[in-house]
Amino acid sequence: MVILQLFWEFFKAGLFAIGGGLATLPFLTDISARTGWFTTNDLADMVAVSESTPGPLGINMATYVGFKTAGIPGGIIATLGLIAPSIIIILIILHILKKFKDSPIIERVFFGLRPASTGLIAAAGLGVARICMLNPVADLHLPEGLLTLINWKMVLLAVLLYIGIKKFNKHPILYVGIAAVCGIVFSL
Q1: CB of 78 closer than 8 Å to CB of 7
Q2: For residue 175, which of 184, 185, 164 has the smallest C-alpha distance?
Q3: DSSP symbol at 143
Q4: DSSP characters for 119-140?
């Protein structure tokens, strides 16, 4: 039964996560809350692992959750659930676009999807930032309470990586490697 539930949950995520892998994060947060298959800390780990392994982020995370929940069959089924809507929708769109490729309505539909994708990705990014950079066990009643709310090591690393990306424009794997080494060296 959990195999069917995995397929269904990831089918829904794949159907509505417009904008790629990061757009699946709000759906994964919802799946976590409803099923208990993984925690929000697991979600942060999934993002880190998925970002640093080959392949699309959303598919890597679906495979991870499926495998963690129901082993190899779960990983395969969750992955198939996530990609099935895309395959179906692409085939339908291909058929429609052949007939209406010059339609202003179709052009406006795609134009309208851009802010939806942007909003989903922004929400996912802010959610990951909150998990990563805030200390949920901070005691706000202490005089330094607000200072303990923020994980300053993570914020500093994120700012330095951002500056490095903007200034040096090297391959992303370099920054993933630097972050991994910093995590080991500085116990992040």
Answers
A1: yes
A2: 164
A3: T
A4: HHHHHHHHHHHHHHHB-TT--T
Q: What is the pLDDT of residues 132-177, one digit of tens each?
A: 888 776 566 666 666 778 888 889 999 999 999 999 988 888 988 8
- Give yes or no for residue 11 having a pLDDT over 90: yes
pLDDT at 12: 92
Burial class (CB in 10 A: 0-12, 13-18, 19+), 140: exposed
Q: Any alpha helices (H) in 36-103, and if so which ranges?
A: 40-51, 57-100
Tokens at residue 19, please? Answer: 């904008």
Radius of gyration of the chain (CA): 19
Q: Are 29 and 44 in contact (CB under 8 A)?
A: no
State both tokens at 65. Answer: 């959750």
pTM reported for the whole predicted model: 0.58
What residue has token string 């179906």? 88
